[in-house]
Amino acid sequence: MTMIPETANPHARVELSGFSKDGAPDNETALRIVVQDTETTESWLQTKMWNIRWLEADILYQSPPMLAVWEGTSVPMANVSKFTVATHVNSLKGQATAGLFYDNPPFVLLPRPGTTQDTVRAITAVQATQLDLMGFQKEVGLGFFQGLLFGTTIFKWGWKEETRILKQYVRRREPLQAETIPGQPQQIDTEESDEIEVEEREELVCFPWLENIDVRHVFVDPGCRTPDIRDAKFVIHRIDMTYRDLIALKNDPFAEYNLPSEVTIKEWFEPPIEGQSSGPTGGNQAENYNQNTNYMHHAMARFQKTTVDPLDEPLEVLERVTNDRIITVLARRLVIRNEKNPFGKINYYSVNWWNNPDAFWGNGLGRVLGGEQRVQQGLTNGLLDITSLVLHPTYVRARGANVHTQQIRQRIGGIIDVDVDKTKGVNSTRDAFTLLEQPRLPTEVFAEIQASEARAESSSGANELLTQGAMPARGRTSIGRTATGAGGLMSAVANRLGSFVEDFVKQVYEPWLWQMYDLNRERLPLYVLRRMLNEELGEAFDKDSVLGGRRPAFFNAGIKSFDVLAGSHLAAKQQMAQSLSLMIQLFENPQTMQTLAEINGEYVDLKELLHMIHDVSGWRNFYDIVKPMTPEMIQRKEQNNPAVLKAQADAQQNEQKFNQQQKLLDQENLAKAAREVMRQVFEKAATPEAVTGLVGGTGFGTVTPS
What we know:
With 706 residues, this protein is an alpha+beta fold. It contains 22 helices and 14 strands. It has helices at 27-47, 50-62, 84-100, 117-133, 136-150, 243-250, 262-267, 285-292, 365-368, 370-391, 429-432, 444-460, 483-523, 526-537, 544-547, 572-587, 590-600, 606-617, 622-625, 631-639, 642-686, 689-692; strands at 108-111, 152-171, 176-181, 184-188, 196-213, 218-220, 235-241, 315-321, 325-330, 334-340, 348-352, 395-397, 433-435, 559-563. The strands form five sheets. A five-stranded antiparallel sheet has the order 6-7-8-9-10. The chain has a three-stranded antiparallel sheet with strand order 5-2-11. Strand 3 (176-181) and strand 4 (184-188) form a beta hairpin. It starts with 26 loop residues before the first helix and ends in a 14-residue tail after the last helix.
């Protein structure tokens, strides 16, 4: 075994001399800060009983049966589990998740003037894809569960780059091409072309990530006085890492980890392992409490050995984050990272179910409804115990009477012999052996159980009818029998649940959407972005308008806000869908379009209107329906253009007129030539021989002598 080197004594005093001029601590000071802050915060949590309260909420949620027997017997008493906390947590979690992810993508980007809709769709498509890659809906569901049960939920975020192997299935050989019919090529499959091979290629995948962190693994500044973890001075995350996890840290392109060679790291995991998170070197008391309760159902603690593979043994890693620095300590001995925070902020989000004044941690349903669950479970089991006494009564016998002195079990057809001796005051069998007066089932208990259930619903907002999907017990309330009453119930449930969802949107969701955009602008390679847009929006998408130029619009877009249509805005999409039908009818009116053009000099973009219809309907195949025209289609369109057809008709008509004029001119020229010939003939025939000295020409009708 190779000892993990110790940077310094972790419990020594922190001196100012350990800080540089800009406030950066050296490694020795950094080690002491992380270890001592962790111990101080964990001790404070134990003092304020937060660990016990989380354990109590966990026990109430699972409601494990506790064995109890009647005194002096081995007969178990009634111990029916009551799942009030679990019922309310799961019903509210389902409602909150469904309300938040009712649409895909579950957010709307509002641009500033000058930002095109193509840029908006590109940003929306990329971030919606990245939300799927990080499993955002799953992490939010886990976060809602923790927030509802324990009162506080915490999320951590960062950036991830990994190379994935993609498989493509191709033919081993291309099919043969032959012309069995002249001019008509035909594909001929062969034995080799029917064989399928797998081609693998590497592809870089980059995306921001956000994950839910167990509240028992995070140490938040005890002086934080608001439910927003970003207001804390520091946050320490306790992580258990294996050999493979440490090797992955060495390849992180955005962090500088000071780790030795892989051979040296592997030697740290030779048994016995020093710095393992179990034992005095680490361990979280909240996890220890859970493991000590054998009747609770949990996975093995992270610090426990679950495999014989020594490279999968866990080592404790403490990561302390502030707005300006990140310090990572291995096994509370070695500082493996001490650098400026590349994010410039605490990379955590948080939200509470119920806030506490002047405090970070909140109250969950485990604490709020714990008392009501105990009341309901105690009263129910008490009624069952009374019923058991009635069904299995106690007998009374006269002292000294001649009856059996040992315990006698009742049975069908059983007979008990009793002697009647009037001298001893036993005048009948009833005097010697009789039933004890049976207890009465108090009807007030049923009313109290119903009242407790009503109090639980009023505290959580999980109405039995509208949220849990069950009809309320008789006698609870009649408010739901009328439309007004049902509307009031729905409004109350929506307001109470919507408050939690709104807090989540304002403190986690919308800040995370902004952070995703900033991370993409800083770290997303352009060729990865181009590939994502091709996959999501298709080749027909005009990427040049979004990614072209020296200042691509994607990275320089003017964004007004990211709006999440949840909480009090759950009906926005339905209202928009109803409004679209009215808008379409309005735009179909020719007079409206003419007035818009003449007065305002504006027009309606039909393509953008189609985009709105697709966005509201939830269909994402716009670019599969509306595609750019091919050159052949453009040529046919131009040929069928009315203006072109009119020009062709005019040209044809002009050509006909020209041909007719040419024919008239030709005929006129022929007639003119004939007239000229006739004139010359007449002139020659009429000229006397005495004038010319020549024999006169042959006139018309002259007969030449033979």
